[in-house]
Amino acid sequence: MQYDFGMIGLGTMGRNFLLNVADKGFSAAGLDLDAEKVASLNKAAGSRKMQATTNQSEFLQMLKTPRRIMLLVPAGNIVDKVIEGLLPHLDQGDLIIDGGNSHYNDTTRRAESLSAAGIRFLGVGVSGGEEGARRGPSIMPGGDFSAWEDVQPILEAVAAKVDREPCVAYMGKGAAGHYVKMVHNGIEYGMMQLISETYDILRRIGGFSNQEIHETFTKWNQGPLQSFLIEITATIFGQKDDKTGGDLIDAILDKAKQKGTGKWTSQSAMDLGVPVPTIDAAVTMRGLSSFWEFRQEAGRKYGSFPTESIDNKTTFAIQLEHALLFSFILTYAQGLHLLAVASKEMNLELNLSETAKIWRGGCIIRAEILEDIRQAFAAQPELENLIASSVFRGRLKTLLPSVRAVVETATQNGIPLLALSSALHYFESLRAPRLPLNLVQAQRDYFGAHTYERLGGDGEVYHTEWGK
């Protein structure tokens, strides 16, 4: 039998994605060197038209031509090794899809190399975790357009659906797919940190119990904050610890790990000169959390701030809901601004309305507000930043007093709000007609003769012999 689609890497993501493909009526073949994974998938296949093997030659013979082969293996050298092993046995026009979290520079390099060999290549971001891969992820393909057309029916079938529309679309040229997925993950970092800071305020200032926090996030998920991350956060606070019988959240060590995509977003943003301070803050906070022993000692030496109590928990929760919504909007704004600039600088030809559209379902950052974001970019395709959109202007003005009050209260009580405060100050900076960076320019010219421009000038530069 000749199979429609091949998968290399039958770990949880690859196995679930391939089962999803087979469930949608396509025949599917799998390859993995681990005989147990192969046997497990063959057992799970049932009546589905799918088969797995440990033999690469057999796997390649099983596929229809031109072959459609997806890799879901760990990013890095393993991807290169798998491609190197395949290349001598592929025919011109065959298609390789890298569905892992590869760095976009690696994707660019691989695309150029494979194109020279006559092999089509797609770098595809896949978001939604294990459950998303099985039931419907958000899929972000970029690269060879003819390759996209070749696999479009399969990817549209397996993707999540919102209003019956598949959460997959061609992102753009080159490494567009993996670049969009990287920024998606950067936004994810920011949103997770914002939620954790909100939890800290609810607990330490609001005096909310875990049950009350569970109820609060459950309520928020029924309003403007409706999103996957708010939903799972509500569930987390209802989870009991099978070891102690208490709440599991209280037993988890406060040291967060990271796989690098948030850091990559910050690095790329710095290279392009695009501010993404809330994403930067989220990466920084994960780093700060790793110094756990140092934090315990410093806490003992410096003591803790007294925390004030609040009079009305309901009013306080509403204020926090508004602050979190404001910060969510600003985090999306930062990520999408980076995508807009990267698209021009890297010739990716991104469509930000389509990006927001496919993020509405399946992915980790899916949220109700993404429909408004989609509409904002559909109305203004050249929109530079969400805060300039009439769709959000009135909403941000309404929410602004709440985020200011929350940041002030937390600061007075010694609670770190690196992400929430960065969202506020990002907004305040972008709407400030004049920033104090004129002084920075004067300082640079003073010690390094770096020159400066004058207000109302035509771009001419000046240098002053300061102090003379």
Give an overview of the whole structure.
This protein is an alpha/beta fold. It has 3 domains: 5-174, 3-Layer(aba) Sandwich (Rossmann fold), CATH 3.40.50.720; 181-430, N-(1-d-carboxylethyl)-l-norvaline Dehydrogenase, domain 2 (Orthogonal Bundle); 436-468, Single alpha-helices involved in coiled-coils or other helix-helix interfaces. It is built from 19 helices and 11 strands. The strands form 3 sheets. A 7-stranded mixed β-sheet has the order 3-2-1-4-5-6-7, sandwiched between helices. Strand 10 (452-453) and strand 11 form a beta hairpin. Helix 9 runs antiparallel to helix 10 (228-236), helix 14 packs across helix 18 (418-430) and helix 15 packs antiparallel against helix 16 (369-379). The radius of gyration is 25 Å and the shape is globular. 46% of the residues are buried.
Brief summary of the model shown:
The protein has helices spanning 12-23, 35-45, 56-62, 77-86, 104-116, 129-135, 145-158, 176-204, 210-220, 228-236, 261-272, 277-289, 292-302, 313-346, 352-358, 369-379, 390-412, 418-430, 437-448, and strands at 5-8, 28-31, 50-53, 68-71, 95-98, 120-127, 138-143, 161-162, 165-166, 452-453, 461-462. The protein has 468 residues and is an alpha/beta fold. A seven-stranded mixed sheet has the order 3-2-1-4-5-6-7, with helices on both faces. A two-stranded antiparallel sheet has the order 8-9.
